[in-house]
Amino acid sequence: MVRLNVTRVGFLMGVSLLLAAIVYFFAANWDGLGRADKILLSAGLIVLFYGASFLFAKLKGMPQHFSFLSSLLLVAGCISFGASAALVNQVYHSHADTFEIFLVWSIPALLLALLTRYSPFYVLAYALVHLTLWQLFFPTSLSVVHTEEQLLGIGALFALLNALVLVAAHSRWLQSAVLRLLAFVGLQVALLAMTALFETSKYDILSNIASLAAIALSFFFYYRIRLNVTMLTFTGLAASAYAVIRYLELLDEHSSTEFYIGGLLFVAALLTANVFFFRFLNSIHSGEDEEDKETDAVREKDTDERKKGALSGKIVSSIVIIVGVLIGSASLIGLVLTLDLGGEPEYLLYAISLIMLLAAILLPKLNPAIRYTVLTVGFAAGLVSIAWIDSVLLSLLLMAIAVFGWLWLDGRAQHLFIYSLLNINAAILLFQLLDSLPHDSAYIVLTLAVLHTLVYTAQHWLQDSKRRQHLREAGLFYMLLFLLWLTFMEDIFPHSGIWFSLINFVVVTALAFHFINRNKGWEAGISLAFWFVYIGVKYYDLLWTLMHKSITLALLGALFLGVTYAYAYRTRAASVPADQPGYKPWSGSGIIWLLIVILLQLGYLAWFTASSESLLAHGKQIKLQIEPLDPRSMLQGDYVRLNYSISTPPDKVREELERPRSTARVQVVVRPGIEADAYVFDRLHRGEPLADGEVVLNGRVSGWQTVYYGIETWFVPEGTGRDTEQSAKYAYVRVSARGDAVLERLSES
C-alpha cells in the first residue's frame, strides 16, 4: 500500500506540474505563436490528455497504477479545457476572468462528475459553478454596484444552490460525503455573510432568522433524523461563528469599559458552550457503544465514522478556542487602554499578561479549557505589550515563560497554538535585534526558517513521545511556511530568491515522498499542501518570467512522470485490484458519452474561434480613444485594462441611468467625433434608424453609470503591459451589425 501511495503521489505531482506549465505558458502570451497556432495547440493538449487517459485505461500490465493514472489524466483533460477556454478569450481580448469562461468550463466538469462519480470532478464542478456565479455578480474586471435587494437575491441564490446540492448529496442518486460537506459549509457561509451584510438594513431580521433556522434545522436533522457526528460538529462551528459575528457587530458600535468586560464574559460563555457541546457529542458516542449489536462490517464502518467525527471535532473545537482567545485578547487590551489608571498602559498590560501566564501554568486544578484560554489570552496580551514597549529583555522573559508553559502543559492543539504565538514573539525579538541591518525582514524570515529546521531535526531530545510528536509537527509546519516565505523576499545575496525557490521545491518534494514512504499521513499531507501552494503562488512571483517557469515545470513534470513510471514498473503488483471510479467511462457505452463531452469542448473552441474571426474579417472598423491600465489575470496573464472615452456617458444620458442597475444591458449609438476621427458617445439606442456613420454597440451599465462593451481587456506578452499603457492612445474595434464588438489592435494614432 505504501508503494502504491508513492506512485500515486508521483503521478499526481507530474500531471500537476504539466498542467501548471500549460497555464503558465498560455498566461505568458508568447508572441512567437499566432492566433491559429495557439488555438490548435490548446485543442491538441485537450485531445492529448483525454487520449492518454483512454490509453492507460486499456493497458493491462499494472492495473492498480494505470487505473489511477487514467482517472487523473481524465481530470487533467477537463482542467486543460478550462485553460484553453481562457486562452481563446485571451487571443480575442475578451474580459479577464469573465464568468463565461467558468460557465463553459463547468458544463463538462458537471457532465464528467455525473458520468464517473469521481470525487475530484465533484469538487471541480462545485468550485466552477460558484466561480461562475461570483464572476457574474462581482466581476473582477468591472466595477459593479448592487442594491440591497439585489444583494439579498444574490445571497439567497448561493444559499439555495448549496441547499439543493446538500439535499442531492444525501440522496441515493448522488451520495457524496465531499459534496455534502462542501454544500453544508457553503450554505452556512452564505447565510452568515448575509447576516453581516445587512446588519444596518431592513433585511437584518430576515437574514438572521434564515441563518438561525438553518443552524437549528441542521442540528435537528443530524441528531434526530440522520445521526452524523461530523456534521453536528460543523453545525456547532456555524453556531459559534454566528455568535462571534454578532459580537463583532456590537464591537463596531460600542467601545467602553463595560463593553470590554462583556467581551470577556462572552468569551467565557462561548468556551463553556464549546465544552458542553463536545461533552454532548461524546455522550452520543457512548450511547452508540451500548446499543451497537450490528455486524462486524457495520462496526468497522461506524468506527471510521467516529474517527472522522473525532478529528473534525478537535479541529472545530480548536477553531472556537482560537476565536475565543482572539476576542478575549482584544477585550483585555481594550479594557486596559480604556481604564484611566495613569502611567503607561503598556507596562500594565505586560504585568497582567505575566500574571495570567503564571496562573495558567502553576494552578493545577484549573479546568483545561479555562487554563488554555487564560494562557493564550495572557500570551497574546504580552505580545502586544512587548511590541509596544520595544524591550529585548522583556521579550526574552515572555518567551522563557511561554516555553516553560509549552513544556508544562499537554494537548496537540494547545501546543500548536502556543508554538504559533512563540513565532510571533521570536519575530518581534528578532526585529528588535536586527532592526539596523539592511533587508532586516528577509533575515528575520531566514533566521526563523533555520530555527524551525533545527527544532524539527533536534526534537528527539524530548522524552515524552506526545510532546516530541507535537514539536515535530509544529516544527515541520513552520519550517515549510518560512521556506515558502523566503522565496518571495528580496535578495540578501545575489540570486538568493532563485536559490531559495530551488531549495524549497527540492526539500518539500523530498519530504512528501519521505513521509509517504514512512506512512506518516499528517506530515505527508502538510508537505503535499505546501507543494501545491508553492506551484500556485509562483504564478504571481515576478522574479522569474512565466515562460521560464513554464519550461521548467514542463521538464520537471516529464521527469516526475518518467521516474514514477519506472518505479511503478519495478514495484508492480498485478494481484492488487484496480480502483477506478464506480462508473468506468472508457468501457461500453461510457466511451460514447465521454466522446460527446470531449466533442462539446472542442466544439466550443471551434465556435468561439470561428465567430471571432468572422467578426474581425467582416465587422465595421471604428476608432476609440482609450486610457489604459496594467493588471494581471489569474488564468490569462498580463493585460491592459482599457477605459474608453465612450465608457462614461454624457450628463444627459447619465441622468437616465441614475437609478443603480446591476449590469443592465443597453445599446449605445456612437458617431465619428472631431478629434482624430475617434468615435464618441451620442445616445442610447431606442430602435430608431441610424444616420450615416453611426454605429450601435452592445454594452452593460453598472451602478456607477459606466458602460462596458466587452472590449475593455487587451492581453499582452508578459512584461510589456507598461509599454502598452504608455504608448497606446486609440483602439481599433470591429463591430458586427448586431452590435457585438471585438478588439483588433491598439495604436498611438
Given as residue ranges, the uncertain stretches (5+ residues, pLDDT < 50) are 288-302, 574-582
* Separate helix tally: 23
Shape type: globular
Based on secondary structure, the structural category is: alpha+beta
How many DSSP-defined strands? 10
Q: From the alpha-carbon coordinates, what is the Rg to the nearest angstrom?
A: 30 Å
In terms of DSSP E residues, the strand content is 5-15%
Q: Report, as a whole number of angstroms, the end-to-end distance.
A: 67 Å
The share of residues in helices is 55-70%
Reported for the largest beta sheet, the result is:
6 strands, antiparallel
Residue-averaged pLDDT, rounded? Answer: 81
Explain what the structure shows.
Helix content is 68%, strand content 8%. With 749 residues, it is α+β, with helices and mostly antiparallel strands. Among the domains are: 1-116 and 545-618, no CATH class; 227-340; 620-747, no CATH class. Strands 1, 2, 3, 8, 9 and 10 form a six-stranded antiparallel β-sheet that branches. Strands 5-4-6-7 form a four-stranded antiparallel β-sheet, with no helix packed on it. Helix 16 runs antiparallel to helix 17 (465-486). The relative contact order is 0.11.
